[in-house]
Design brief:
Elements lengths: L5 E7 L8 E7 L7 E10 L2 H8 L22 E2 L3 E9 L11 E4 L2 E3 L8 E4 L11 E5 L3 E3 L7 H5 L1 H14 L7 E4 L5 H12 L3 E6 L4 H6 L4 E4 L4 H8 L4 E6 L4 H6 L3 E9 L13 H4 L4 E4 L5 H12 L7 E6 L3 H10 L5 E5 L1
Parallel strand pairs: 11-12, 11-14, 12-13, 14-15, 15-16, 17-18
Antiparallel strand pairs: 1-2, 1-4, 3-5, 3-9, 3-18, 5-6, 6-10, 7-8
Helix pairs in contact: 3-4, 3-9
Length: 349
């Protein structure tokens, strides 16, 4: 690779609708010291792509403010957090043996060096991402999955959705034999939660609706609760002894309705607000039963390492809903925003 080479990339020039996505020819980035250059085989889409583009994250004290995931976004920004591909070059101080290896990039930018660091930034938001033919990443964030039987599309589906899901499961301490409730079960994180909780040996109840119910059952849910009906009543019928851990990406009214269904010492883990961020619940149901409400954003380096072990052994099988070429990024994001699909949408640069 040399600096004069150009690549195609899709970037956002400001906050707005799909029209702010532009296909551009830009210089291939040069890996700095401690970095690698990855040729992107597949990049998966996430809700965070839509929300970063829209500036939908709000700011502390100003929920309506246009903002990226953790503050202002520097424009133009190449989107895309979830990359699988091959290392084609390394910066100084990086093992040359990485060149040619098939890798998945951990997209998190962490607040510290340790194994339990918190994510405070994200590739595709706080640094350029994988809606491009090439992307750079710190060498310690690149995981060798050369031996994995999963496809590039499946591997690209893992970082944000499965990383977020595994972070929720780990922070909620879901154990084998416990009962887990998954909300929004047909979405990217929801389907990942169903698969990962099932792989862990939990009894999985999933909330979904309409034509997606069969796909959620196929992913491993023991029982599917129809969102169109009385949710609390259906949960009580399916789990008369209560829920140990709720794995919730919906929030909204579900929190208030669901907390009384937790067993003693139950955990309610929230990693999204698809149903609304303004939540009301009876606090007595929390403290009288030693329950916990736990916020969970993405994953730690330790969680991501666990996920990559699962990927090498193909213990989870991401479902691919659709694949688009890079120049159809706007169409791909539109498809994602309609929420009619089950599984992950990917692009091929």
């Amino acid at each position: 690779m040399n600096a004069s080479q150009v690549m195609r990339a899709v970037r956002i020039t400001g906050h707005g609708g799909p029209e702010v996505l532009e296909l551009a020819e830009v210089a291939v980035p040069t890996p700095e010291a401690g970095e690698v250059l990855v040729r992107v085989g597949a990049v998966a889409l996430n809700n965070t792509d839509l929300w970063t583009r829209e500036g939908a994250y709000g700011r502390p004290g100003d929920p309506g403010a246009k903002s990226g995931w953790r503050g202002p976004v520097g424009f133009p920004r190449i989107q895309g957090a979830d990359v699988a591909g091959r290392v084609v070059a390394v910066g100084t101080g990086v093992e040359q043996s990485l060149v040619g290896r098939r890798v998945v990039v951990d997209p998190a930018i962490y607040d510290s060096e340790g194994p339990d660091a918190n994510p405070v930034g994200l590739m595709g938001s706080e640094r350029d991402g994988g809606y491009a033919e090439y992307v750079t990443a710190p060498a310690e964030r690149v995981h060798d999955v050369t031996e994995s039987p999963l496809t590039d599309d499946q591997l690209a589906s893992l970082p944000t959705a499965y990383g977020t899901a595994l972070g929720m499961i780990e922070r909620g301490r879901l154990r084998k034999g416990e009962t887990g409730l998954v909300s929004g079960a047909s979405g990217g994180v929801g389907l990942a939660l169903v698969q990962l909780a099932r792989a862990r040996g939990a009894t999985v109840l999933a909330i979904s609706s309409g034509p997606k119910i069969d796909a959620v059952r196929e992913a491993g849910a023991h029982a599917v609760i129809d969102r169109a009906g009385d949710i609390a009543e259906q949960i009580r019928a399916a789990a008369p002894d209560g829920i140990d851990v709720a794995l919730d990406v919906v929030a909204g009214e579900l929190v208030g309705e669901g907390l009384p269904l937790l067993r003693e010492g139950g955990r309610w883990v929230i990693a999204g607000a698809l149903g609304g961020y303004d939540v009301t619940f009876d606090v007595r149901r929390l403290y009288l039963h030693n329950a916990q409400v736990i916020g969970s954003a993405m994953h730690t380096p330790t969680h991501f390492g666990l996920l990559m072990d699962l990927a090498r052994r193909a213990e989870v099988q991401p479902v691919i809903a659709a694949a688009f070429p890079l120049e159809q990024a706007a169409e791909a994001q539109e498809e994602l925003s309609r929420r009619e699909h089950v599984g992950k949408i990917v692009m091929h640069p």
